[in-house]
Amino acid sequence: MTYRVQIATRMADVDPGHWDALIHDTKESIFYHRSFLEAFEKHPLHPVERTAYLTMLTPSGRPAAALPAFLMRGTDPMRVLATHFPDITAEPALLSHVWHCYQTTLPTHPRHPEAADAAMAAFTELAQEWKASLCGLVNIDHQDPLAARLTARGIPGTNIETGWGMDIATFANLDAYITGLVRKRRTIMRQYLRRAHEAGVRTRFTPAVDGDLDGFVRLARHTAEKFDNADYYQPGLFQDFVLHLGDHAWLLELHLDGQLIGSALVLLDDARIHFFATGFDLTASPRFSPFYLLFARTVQEGITRRLPWLAAGRRNPDFKRRHNLTPTALTAHLKLVTT
To answer: Are 191 and 291 contained in the same domain?
Structure first.
């Protein structure tokens, strides 16, 4: 089948009857929803030179595949390009997705799997047109059939990071999850929850628009400072980005004696609850860890909302492994662009 490609450089110009319908039907993550893409377009959390949205249509005009594309130069926070293409890290690269996305895929209608090949061909042509030196997809789950498809096209993957998640569909409640932990972790989790309750910690799960976003950014920057990564949360810009996510963005807040001691940015989509980012003050709660509380209450919220999957991003492997999250290798499928 021959597919027709539509390319727009603004999400506002993308037909919602095509893009939004495909993303809904394929139950893709928040990173492919219009609100996220528009938020990054208007409030980019890292530099992007040009943006394009590719939609593949069948001859009858039905959406078959969709792919966002971002031209970047020198933007490499995970040091993937520096590690595998050190000679061209300063050159333009056309990538999908942005680096804040830890669940990259190529949304494709199940009736049209070959549309993914057509999308990659159009993506490569765009890289040539925009004079990129490198192009490809990053942060793909190695178990995603897309990884094998890209390898078959001569774009093999390289492991670049570990992603973490957990199936929470089988848990009736938070206690059922905690019961499944090994004894030591189970004891610590229950101890921290009990101590927080005894201390009078108040928990609030609220739409981000109604929460203390400034407080979240303050705590997130405080926490990230120890990893020399505070500017991941740029004041003002990060709040604007989150607010643009609308009802997909929620804040889980912990208050003690009227003080915000912990906050998590939680993202929701049709099938997942995302434990996206956290900030906390350990000195304000010496007898328990706010991070443990934030994680536990996020699990609880996902179970309550009957969302089957908890997506927990990258990094912090020790905590995630000890608390029964499942690791998966994330791969980058990159190739040099030839004219």
So the answer is: yes
At 98-117, the pLDDT tens digits run: 999 999 999 999 999 999 99
Q: Which residues have CB under 8 Å from 262's CB, separation 6+?
A: 219, 253, 254, 278, 279, 280, 281, 285, 290, 291, 293, 294
Nearest Cα residue to 102 out of 339, 258, 332, 281: 332
Task: Please indicate, yes or no, whether residues 23 and 89 belong to a single structural domain of this protein.
Answer: yes
Number of folded domains that form the chain: 2
202 and 107 inside one domain: no
Q: Is residue 221 within 8 Å of 270, Cβ to Cβ?
A: no
Q: Looking at the domain assignment, is residue 100 inside a domain?
A: yes
For 1-23, the DSSP string reads: ---EEEEESSGGGS-TTTHHHHH
Give the length of the chain.
339
Cβ neighbours of residue 110 under 8 Å, at least 6 residues apart? 26
Which residue reads 């893009």 in tokens? 19
The whole-model pTM stands at 0.94
